[in-house]
Every structure is written in structure tokens, then in C-alpha cells.
Amino acid sequence: MTELKTKPSNQSVTAFLAGVQPADRRKDCRTLVRMMKAATGAAPKMWGPSIVGFGSYHYKYDSGREGDWFLTGFSPRKTDLTLYIMAGFARCDALMKKLGRHRTGKSCLYIKRLDDVDGRVLSRLVRESVRHMSKKQA
User: pTM here?
Assistant: First the structure.
């Protein structure tokens, strides 16, 4: 089996975030750090060169592939902030309708900037995802 390229690193989260441009994107990242740290109780850690992750869980697929991944995290991509909502969005229809401007993938939430979404709804979405993923591990 191939090894995952995205794994925890010793890269400094502070240094990574200091290099995020423009300044308003950097400010949004710092807000996400506070939000996700509160949701997980975990310090931020770099996963690969550009993802800030919080906490971790172990997964194992029917195929036998297994590994560890972060409970929640984000990456300041060129066009969007990508938030990793590992529980997905299937159970969150009501929250998603209240969130504001966004796009989604399977477990990715794409937003241009935090001002485009309701911060309380986003925080709740992150907390509920973390709670769901943590229960799966218990």
C-alpha cells in the first residue's frame, strides 16, 4: 500500500500562518485556529505543507487500509479557505442552509472569506463534526 503524503509534520503553524497572503486571509486563518482549537481542545499542527489540523482519529476501511487523520482542519488555498469537516454534511442540512456563501465537496467546505458565512453556524458545524468523529472512536 502507498503511504499517505499528508501527515503530521514539525513545521511551525505560526510561521506558516505568518506567510499567508493577503492580510485578511491571514486574519481569517487565525480566527479558524481559535475556533477549531476550542472545538477539539487540541493545539494546531501542520499536516503536510499547507494544512493546519487539530486532534486526530484512526480510520480503517473494509479494504484493510488504515491510518490517522485530523479531526478538523483548514488550508488557506489560493482561491478559497478549505475547511475539512470530516463527518461530512449529510446530517447538517439545516445548518448548511443558514451558513451563507459556500461550496462543498465530500468533506470539504469551501468559502472565500469568513465574512461570507455566519460564524456561529460555522462554529457549530465544526463542533458537531468533531463530536461525531470522536464518538466513532469511542
Answer: 0.92
